Amino acid sequence: MRQTLHRLTVLLLLTITLAPAQAEIATISSAINQAGRQRMLSQRMVKSYCMIGIDVQREEAEEQLTKAIDLFELQLRELKAYPPAEAIRPSLEKVEALWIPFKKVLQSPISRENAEILLDTNDELLRAANKVVLKLQDISGSSYGRLVNVAGRQRMLSQRLAKFYMLRSWGIDNSEIEAEIQQARNEFSGALAELIAARENTQEIDKKLQEASKEWNLFDHGLERNKDSLVPLIAAMSSEKLLVKMNEITGMYEKLAASQ
What is the mean pLDDT of residues 246-253? Predict the structure, then answer.
């Protein structure tokens, strides 16, 4: 099992690290994809931090966290350098202002106290990153831009659910977290149905969405089945598989949007 998870982790790290490795953002669809990836990273970093804290695949989680921090900063710089960024500059500056103290906590000694600080500040960073995506979607003015946004947001939800699972495994739990978990599950299911029904889909995208749907059913059933007897390793593995699928689909929508 450890070898399988390690291979999966390496694949994911390659997928999310190499995707934005261009010198500059070439199209509005790639800007939406990249800004959307910032949302996912905001959740992934806290998830990885908690995995270190509860000693679940600690070595892989440490690598995930380091790479996620580096990628978040790289993408922020690239988004600021994107020519239409003047229209979204205040939103990017808001993300940067929130990121500086957030990063400081991420790089502080691992503790439950710091995990709770991250939990308290995480949603504000997520909302700021999401605002950038929505502004870019508005600039695109197309249904294809929306599909890139919606598919990209599924990546975030996969990591958000895993984040809450890891927090609960660390003993950080309350009724608000349970409500957030249920909301994220509902949002993922609803958005997946929207993507499956999209008239813009190609045959290849339809096939990938069916694969993602199977991964989601396994992950969702696992969340429900194990909510009273937490198994963080399984949650970590399932969320990674789902993230890989949704990252592939988001990239496919990005290419489709750029071709229109």
Answer: 98
